[in-house]
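Q: I have 200 residues here and want to know how they pack in 3D. Can you give me a structure?
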Amino acid sequence: MNGILFKPDMIQAIIEGRKTQTRRLGGLKEINKTPDIWECLNPTATHLVTFYNEGTAFCTRVKPPYQAGETVYIKEAWRTRVAFDGFRPSQIPDDAFILFKGEESSLVNGRWRSPLHLRGVHARYFLEITDVRAERLQEITEEDAKAEGVEYTEWFIPNLGLDGKDNLRAFYYLWNSINKEKWESNPWVWVYTFRNKEGK
């Protein structure tokens, strides 16, 4: 089972039902070196999406890292008993007691570990990917920005032609705060729609 990373505030938005979409760059590095020269021929295709370069008549096919129908787990910072501090994640028993940020227990006093090293067997939140498509980042709508779980506050955000579009302005701020490919470069992204499937 594949894992997926979110910022803590976005995990909370998922729990509250406010976040049902996420946009990701994975697998599109070569396309995004020159995003403007590519056209996506089948943005909602299953398994492989075809990008076409009109200038060279070259096609390339890219597989989204996550597929519609797939269940993924959310990777979070975690800890377990101090007795396991010298263990690699793969060595920690499947039934070990795991603690996440915001939880408290006198049984768990081990060191905090990176979300990257959380195994699916220890995860507490799972998402079912219900839809996948490719699009340019700036194609996002006000409605989709809301589905990204952002909440507008009075940040200083450049105009960008987004006056009156508070969700888009908030998403712009979120995107540029966590991604190297900035809003202004308008990269190709995968748009994943999901539902919160189950809890541990």
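Q: Anything worth noting?
A: The mean pLDDT is 90. The chain has two domains: 3-70+126-193, 77-122.
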